[in-house]
């Protein structure tokens, strides 16, 4: 059997595994609460607040979608014309055209071009977010964040590109097998490492101070049977007024993080409600599920790239001989950008179902639908979320059920509709 036939077989096996795993672990049946409940919830929100959040999103949309379209265009130009390959040759020239220099420096050059082109739109988004008072950042702080995220991306990207092209260099026929295993392993490793290595680059995390709230949160976790060593507070207020909480990491790096803004903007009861939602993620092993889905997905992506590499027409557009050579980085960017846009709605759909399950967990654990609903209203108001966004936008991009869907779910739960 040829390597290509093996790759096709492995691809089929992995796709079946991904579908089977997703079918088994994603809570597909958690459809949103009845539309009538959603509309009733919407009717009870203050009209001026709803109007303000809608005006905010209307102003944000051109910059957001413009940025998306521009990112796609840059990727297509760098990937489907010889321009990307030319850029990578230039980046590797000072190092004697060595493949490793082309891989790392060429990759950075490609990403830098894409970042610089989309920079004006990112700045435009910041002006809107700042004008509505959601961002507390000056241009200085905003620029520092931008440089930090480019730095983190550069380090991670350099590791990934150096690893990938070392494998394609050493095993030109079988790189897809090593690459797929490496990509899956990297996703698992990052799940452990990102919370403790990357998150602190952007925020300071301190244990929540002793007091009634901390005691109550730890008691809640105890009652839920979820081992939590600590509840951390992130200094999000130096960047935003938005409130949030999340759970990240696996095993010993698992932590529940509450934004400091949450402690000043929300009541203690609402913080407990949010923490109960986060405990739901921990109890249902949502981070682990996401990691396994991500690992399978990235292994599939590597093999699909390998198979796509036998498409001569695509290679000739990019002016490269093989998809496994560093000059093809632009083509890799184009293919992954398009694949990301196509996979986005499916990922969002899965995420919304998982979030709905965590909401039900919070309701069951606290038994307090009224506070849960008040918390959703608070989250929506402070974060300027559109409580009932256009359905196409919700389907394409929303990672969480909308505010009115979450309020309606609490009402249905209180009625005994579980
Ligand atoms: Zn959640």
TrEMBL record:
Necessary cofactors: Zn(2+)
InterPro entries the record matches: CAXX_Prtase_1 (IPR027057), Peptidase_M48 (IPR001915), Peptidase_M48_N (IPR032456)
Entry annotated with the keyword Zinc: yes
Pfam families: Peptidase_M48 (PF01435), Peptidase_M48_N (PF16491)
Chain ranges of the Peptidase M48 domain: 210-413
Cofactor note as given: Binds 1 zinc ion per subunit.
Keyword Membrane recorded: yes
Keywords (A to Z) from UniProt: Hydrolase, Membrane, Metal-binding, Metalloprotease, Protease, Transmembrane, Transmembrane helix, Zinc
Parts of the chain that traverse the membrane: 6-26, 62-83, 103-124, 145-168, 174-198, 287-308, 328-350
CDD domains linked: M48A_Zmpste24p_like
Source taxon at top rank: Bacteria
Occurrences of domain CAAX prenyl protease 1 N-terminal (ranges): 69-204
Membership in a protein family: Belongs to the peptidase M48 family.
Protein name from the UniProt record: M48 family metallopeptidase
């Amino acid at each position: 059997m040829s390597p290509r036939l093996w790759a096709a077989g492995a691809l089929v096996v992995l796709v079946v595994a991904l579908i089977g795993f997703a079918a088994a672990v994603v809570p597909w049946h958690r459809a949103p609460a009845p539309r009538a409940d959603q509309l009733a919830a919407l009717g009870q929100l203050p009209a001026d607040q709803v109007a303000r959040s809608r005006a905010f999103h209307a102003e944000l949309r051109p910059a957001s979608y413009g940025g998306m379209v521009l990112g796609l265009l840059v990727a297509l130009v760098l990937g489907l014309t010889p321009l990307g390959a030319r850029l990578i040759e230039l980046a590797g020239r000072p190092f004697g055209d060595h493949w490793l220099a082309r891989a790392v420096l060429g990759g950075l050059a490609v990403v830098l071009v894409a970042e610089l082109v989309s920079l004006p739109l990112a700045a435009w988004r910041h002006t809107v977010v700042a004008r509505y008072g959601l961002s507390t950042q000056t241009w200085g702080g905003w620029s520092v964040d931008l440089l930090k995220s480019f730095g983190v991306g550069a380090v991670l990207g350099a590791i990934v590109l150096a690893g990938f092209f070392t494998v394609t260099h050493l095993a030109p026929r079988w790189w897809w097998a090593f690459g797929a295993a490496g990509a899956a392993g990297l996703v698992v490793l990052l799940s452990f490492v990102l919370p403790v290595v990357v998150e602190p680059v952007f925020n300071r995390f301190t244990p929540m101070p002793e007091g009634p709230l901390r005691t109550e949160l730890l008691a809640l976790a105890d009652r839920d049977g979820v081992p939590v060593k600590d509840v951390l507070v992130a200094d999000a207020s130096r960047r935003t007024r938005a409130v949030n909480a999340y759970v990240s990491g696996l095993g010993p790096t698992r932590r529940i993080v509450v934004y400091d803004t949450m402690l000043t903007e929300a009541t203690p009861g609402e913080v407990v409600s949010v923490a109960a939602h986060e405990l739901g993620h921990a109890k249902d092993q949502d981070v682990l599920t996401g990691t396994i889905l991500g690992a399978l997905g990235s292994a599939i992506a590597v093999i699909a790239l390998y198979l796509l590499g036998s498409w001569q027409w695509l290679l000739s557009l990019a002016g490269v001989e093989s998809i496994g050579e560093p000059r093809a980085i632009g083509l890799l960017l184009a293919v992954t950008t398009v694949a990301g846009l196509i996979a986005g709605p499916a990922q969002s759909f899965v995420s919304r179902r998982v979030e709905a399950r965590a909401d039900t967990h919070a309701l069951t654990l606290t038994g307090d639908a009224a506070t849960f609903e008040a918390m959703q209203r608070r989250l929506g108001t402070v974060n300027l979320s559109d409580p009932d966004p256009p359905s196409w936008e919700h389907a394409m991009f929303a990672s969480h059920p909308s505010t009115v869907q979450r309020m309606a779910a609490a009402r249905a739960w209180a009625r005994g509709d579980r």
